[in-house]
């Protein structure tokens, strides 16, 4: 933490005393939440608001606290009911209904490197959209390739060039999760696998797909939790940013 710079900013009226206090303490005390105001400085991206389990008033309070310096705001797992309240308070924000994400001030894309978000089926698209919107919010170009599962594997091969040319691939599948191993065996890029809770009884709400992906014999595959499109996109964004910096 650059204490001297913060104090100089206060002296020069570039930063208010209250904002300087946040920067020095490292978090804001809201009573129901301690908002991490230093996460961007530590990790490269600001704190993300997990909307599930929070009411509209709580989400609004956190956004107001985080947005004081025009940070990028991403709230995930926001229901349509809560989204209506957020849009009334922040009409300049955007609600992505399928992704269940509310976004303010997304980072502008400044690279030709892109992340490929690939799904096995149409039923996986809600998780895929959470991944795609998260990646786009953090300044990444995204290519969506949906419904190319192994039950009709010719659909995958018809799109393989777009997938191969991505800097990183997010592969999303339910059922038995076979798509991930197939993609992992065809590309020379990192593959981040997302098991989904889509499938019949023995899918076990995503456990079967999770175990299948963890046991993939394809090299270069890493796995996030069930339905965790956000987590996959966060990791993909970090990889994409590093590759862009190296090439730039």
From TrEMBL:
GO terms for molecular function: hydrolase activity. One of its GO terms (biological process) is 'de novo' IMP biosynthetic process. It comes from the Bacteria. InterPro entries: P2CMN_synthase_LarB (IPR039476), PurE_dom (IPR000031). This is AIR carboxylase family protein. Residues 113-245 form the PurE domain. It comes from Pediococcus claussenii (strain ATCC BAA-344 / DSM 14800 / JCM 18046 / KCTC 3811 / LMG 21948 / P06). It holds the Pfam family AIRC. NCBIfam families: LarB.
């Amino acid at each position: 933490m650059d204490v001297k710079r913060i104090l100089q900013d206060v002296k020069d009226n570039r930063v208010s005393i209250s904002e300087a206090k946040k920067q020095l303490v490292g978090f804001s005390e809201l009573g129901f939440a301690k908002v991490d105001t230093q996460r961007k400085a530590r990790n490269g991206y600001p704190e993300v608001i997990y909307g599930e389990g929070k009411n509209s008033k709580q989400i609004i309070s956190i956004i107001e606290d985080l947005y004081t310096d025009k940070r990028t705001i991403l709230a995930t797992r926001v229901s349509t009911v809560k989204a209506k309240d957020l849009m009334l308070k922040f009409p300049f924000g955007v609600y992505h209904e399928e992704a269940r994400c509310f976004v303010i001030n997304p980072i502008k894309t400044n690279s030709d490197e892109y992340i490929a978000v690939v799904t096995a089926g149409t039923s996986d698209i809600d998780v895929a959209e959470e991944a795609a919107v998260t990646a786009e919010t953090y300044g990444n170009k995204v290519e969506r390739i949906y419904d190319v599962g192994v039950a009709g594997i010719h659909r995958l091969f018809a799109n393989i060039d777009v997938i191969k040319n991505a800097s990183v691939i997010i592969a999303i599948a339910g059922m038995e999760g076979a798509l991930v191993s197939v993609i992992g065996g065809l590309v020379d890029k990192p593959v981040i696998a997302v098991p989904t809770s889509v499938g019949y009884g023995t899918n076990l709400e995503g456990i079967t797909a999770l175990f299948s992906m963890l046991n993939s014999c394809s090299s270069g595959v890493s796995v996030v939790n069930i339905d965790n499109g956000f987590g996959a996109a966060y990791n993909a964004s970090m990889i994409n940013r590093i590759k862009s910096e190296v090439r730039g």
